Structure formats: structure tokens, C-alpha cells
């Protein structure tokens, strides 16, 4: 009986350890907004309205730089809107055609799908900031993404 209790206790500890590792992995895989100006982690208290959503920054200085030259930081701001689930993908950002879920890739913490493997190939050939600019520039954002409209009835 003691052996059974010890084995059961060890199995329970192993299961708890495995579950806590899985939870940590899920949190690590979660999108973490970065300031579009500095690239440092963004904080919720530093935000400005942008395209019907909010863009978050790392400090009180960055919103001013962003508003002074929004076009310079647009791709990273658009990426953040999608990553924070304020915007959703509706069509291929490169071609504007219907999405094929089998073409989805991870773009710095954001899942993005394309219409075909040709568009997917263009996206995977780009890396880092070049990939963000290709997929989330203003023209691509307008083709493929839509900022969610706040449900005014739900707010009441």
C-alpha cells in the first residue's frame, strides 16, 4: 500500500510539473506588444488611438515620436493591432484574395495566412523588420485586415 501511495504521489507531482511547463510555454508563445518606435516592451499606460484601436508604447516619449511620423512606424503599429487582437485578418495581405488556412505562418508572434503558397513564399523569404513591413504596411493592412468595431450595445 505504501508503494502504491508513493507511486501515486510521484505521478501527481509529475503531472503538475508537466501542466505548469505547458502553461509557461503557452504564456511564452503569447504575443507581447513591442513599442513601434523603440522596439522595447510596450506598457498599457502609454497608448494612443490609432485606426480605431490603441497602439502601446514603452514610455511617455514614444507616442510623440509616433504621432510626428506615423507613416514611419505604421507597419509595426499595424502588427501590434493584429497581435493584440484589435484587428483581425480577413483576406490575404499581399493579394487581397480569400485566405487559405494551410498557408498560415507565425510573424513575430502573430499568425498570418495567405491566399496561396506563392504569397506565403514571399512572406517567408523576408525576415525580421522586412517581413513586418511586407505584411503589415498600410496598403497590405488595408487589403487584409480589419480593426474590430467595439460593440456599443455590449458596453451599455
Total of domains: 1
The number of distinct helices, counting runs of at least 4 residues, comes to 7
Number of strands: 6
Spell the H/E element sequence. Answer: HEEHHEEEHHHEH
Principal-axes geometry comes out as: globular
Radius of gyration: 20 Å
The share of residues in extended strands comes to 15-25%
Average pLDDT number? 84
Spans where pLDDT lies below 50 across 5 or more residues: 4-27, 151-156
The profile of the biggest β sheet is:
2 strands, antiparallel
What strand order characterises the main sheet? 1-2
Report the helical percentage: 40-55%
> What is the terminal-to-terminal distance?
60 Å
Structural class: alpha+beta
Could you explain the architecture of this structure?
With 156 residues, the chain is α+β, with helices and mostly antiparallel strands. The protein has one domain. The protein has helices at 2-29, 62-68, 70-83, 117-125, 128-136, 138-144, 152-155; strands at residues 43-50, 53-57, 87-89, 100-107, 110-114, 145-147. It has a two-stranded antiparallel ribbon with strand order 1-2. Strands 3-6 form a two-stranded antiparallel sheet. It is globular. The model is unreliable at 4-27 and 151-156 (pLDDT under 50).
Question: Keywords, please?
Answer:
two-stranded antiparallel ribbon, disordered C terminus, 50% helix, globular
